[in-house]
């Protein structure tokens, strides 16, 4: 039963990470579409947000395998 719950938690973490990445890039595209000259400011912020969202998912994968 414990292994099943770990995998359910991993799936929820993956879904949350996918939603977060979608929201990050949707906001980036929206911001660049409204103000194209702000691309240099917005792009590093979007890349940082992407990296942090992926890091959370990678940590979830590691914790799922360590606990199991």
UniProtKB/TrEMBL annotation:
Q: Its domain of life?
A: Bacteria
Sorted alphabetically, which keywords does the UniProt record give? ATP synthesis, Cell membrane, CF(0), Hydrogen ion transport, Ion transport, Lipid-binding, Membrane, Transmembrane, Transmembrane helix, Transport
Q: Name one Pfam family in it.
A: ATP-synt_C
- Residues the record annotates as the site (Reversibly protonated during proton transport) are 54
Q: How does it sit in the membrane?
A: Multi-pass membrane protein
Q: Does the keyword Transport apply?
A: yes
**V-ATPase proteolipid subunit C-like domain location:** 8-67
InterPro entries given for it?
ATP_synth_F0_csu, ATP_synth_F0_csu_DDCD_BS, ATP_synth_F0_csu_sf, ATPase_proteolipid_c-like_dom, F/V-ATP_Csub_sf
Q: Where in the cell is it found?
A: Cell membrane; Membrane
Which residues are listed as membrane-spanning?
Answer: 6-29, 41-67
As for family, the record states:
Belongs to the ATPase C chain family.
* Function (record text): Key component of the F(0) channel; it plays a direct role in translocation across the membrane. A homomeric c-ring of between 10-14 subunits forms the central stalk rotor element with the F(1) delta and epsilon subunits.
Can you say what this protein is called?
ATP synthase subunit c
Tell me which species this is from. Nesterenkonia aerolata
Record lineage: Bacteria, Bacillati, Actinomycetota, Actinomycetes, Micrococcales
Gene transcribed to yield this protein: atpE
């Amino acid at each position: 039963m414990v292994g099943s719950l770990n995998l359910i938690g991993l799936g929820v973490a993956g879904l949350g990470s996918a939603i977060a990445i979608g929201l990050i890039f949707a906001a980036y595209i929206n911001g660049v579409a409204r103000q194209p000259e702000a691309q240099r400011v917005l792009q590093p912020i979007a890349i940082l947000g992407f990296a942090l969202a992926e890091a959370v998912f990678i940590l979830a994968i590691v914790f799922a395998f360590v606990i199991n």
